[in-house]
Amino acid sequence: MDLNKLLNISTLAGKIMLESGAETYRVEETIVRIGLSFGVDDAESFVTPTGIITSLTKDSTTVTLVRRITSRGVDLNKIDLINNLSRQVQAQSMTIDELNTELINISQSDRYSAALTLFSSCAAAGCFALMFGGNIKDFFAAFIIGACIKIVSTVCQKLDINSFFINSLGGGLCAILAIILMKLNICANLDKTIIGSIMLLVPGLTITNAIRDTIAGDLLSGITKAAEAFLVAISIAVGTGAILSLFLNTIQS
Question: Number of folded domains in the chain?
Fold first, then answer.
């Protein structure tokens, strides 16, 4: 058995999961499970939100690999597929090459279509506006703003723009569009519309994973994710607050 090949493949599985928003403990479990399934004497994995360290030992030979994680998103389908794949490897025979092929197919698999993602974002923003006490006008206003935020965020991500700037831009765009729609009498409650639309930018999964990792004892990962969520919240507040302050000063003058 090629120990280095197994090391790279098991780390690839963890890399895909971590980039898709998986918890650190789940990534570590998956890497260790794959390694032990192929008969290594010992498998260890240390995962943080920005990196993976994997070590495999077989017949007194130890190999170690460090993999840097530079991008993170949310794709629960990939997490589920790899989680199930690792359990299949544990339960039945599968060659390393077959596992590698499956992982490559999963990593290259298409996410939901752009149109469906856009519509879902719009609907989510509108429904949040209703949930926070808005009316039907606020729903449609948040629906429109949600579309704009999603389009701008997607374009900025493709251009590799800093996430702090993207969230600040999204917050500012949300505020200024809500003000414009209110002037056009499309929006009834400015606060409800802004809050509903901003929910698209709130890092809900990151906050949840931060709490989960901290409770599980993964303090480094928990603190890192909590800090990331805090910075995202600040960036949203900066963008939204700047536009609202400018708007309020203009009205008062």
Answer: 2
